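hiii, so i know i said id send this last week but things got crazy w the move. better late than never?? heres the sequnce for the chain we talked about at the cafe, plus the structure i predicted for it. fair warning i was half asleep when i ran it
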Amino acid sequence: MIKPKILITGSTGKTGAALVAELRKREMPVRAMVSREDSRSESLQRLGAEIVVADMYDPEQLLEAAKGTQRAYYLPIMRPYMIQAANAFAVAAREAKLESIVQMSQWTSSASHPTAMTRQTWLIDRMFSMIPGVAHTIFNPGMFADNFLRVIDFAALLGIFPTLMGESKCAPISNEDMARAAAALLMDDPAKHVGKSYRPTGTELLAGKDMAKIIAKVVGHRVIPVNLPLWMFRKVARQQKIDPYQIAVLLQYVEDNKRGAFSFEGGVTQVMEELTGRPAESFETTTRRYAAMPFARQTFGNRLKAFVNFNITPFYPSYKIKAYERSLELPIPPKPLFCMEDERWKKSHASQMGFPRVSAANGESRLTGEATLLTVERAASSYSS
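okay and structure toks below
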């Protein structure tokens, strides 16, 4: 049986790198697309991945990257003009005759969301579903556990766990679980998943105080959850040199979480077990992995560094997010709506909390008749020896 070669975009990121590792563990041929060669790409190459350098905005480079592969995992880039990059990839996918794309979407994906990235994701969902002959599957997890555990050093070293979400809850999922789910979709017969949308989640709904208790158990001492004011969060973000666009996006998702979008219809699914045969790992399991990382180890040097960083934060300059967003001159919908204000969003997402459903994107597409037949034929031929 000939195994299909899989193209991975975003392969040096946290979910992309985990996906490359998962596929190589299963001895799948992988082509990892990177923006440049560095220590991260070298790590992927040591796993046995083929490395290709390509500009995500350049259709010709993307076409060269896609040629000779049969399937792709597409991770939208977190940049203001991500829609251009996705359009370029759609053109390349058609010309390279890919048989299937598993696309990372967003749980919040909607046409009228206040966040430009979310609105562009909604458009990408639909654009990819309309590529003739390419089986399209949406993969839309909610809040990443990484969003919360990137500050585990404060908890481990100072006994303080900063949180932005107040009492609101979500079911955080690990990078490793997302990689397992995506790998299962990429390795299976594309015809089984064409037009479907999958929402993998963590095992339980957690608020910041719940996470603090779990972290305390892992690090072995008391951890106090501290509700971080947004003005302080913007200072921390700039101190850590996080891209202001990513911060602008995350602030809107914080608001979505507070309004209940990530706990909608119970907030927890069994998709991980349905796709992989194993349930999602617990937040405690994920936390133990982060607590063992060098930056979170309870050493004198780490404690001193965390103490200094924590105390200088109030004096650090803050990002001026509103002014930054205005400078981008991105289009704004006539009536921006957060998810829980949007009846169309609630209607289209409610059924995803049970079994995988035919996504709105694919349901509205032209991927029927001849195009679907072509997809099935390609899927079958890729498995013939």
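btw Residues 364-385 have pLDDT under 50 and may be disordered. thought thatd interest u
miss u guys!!
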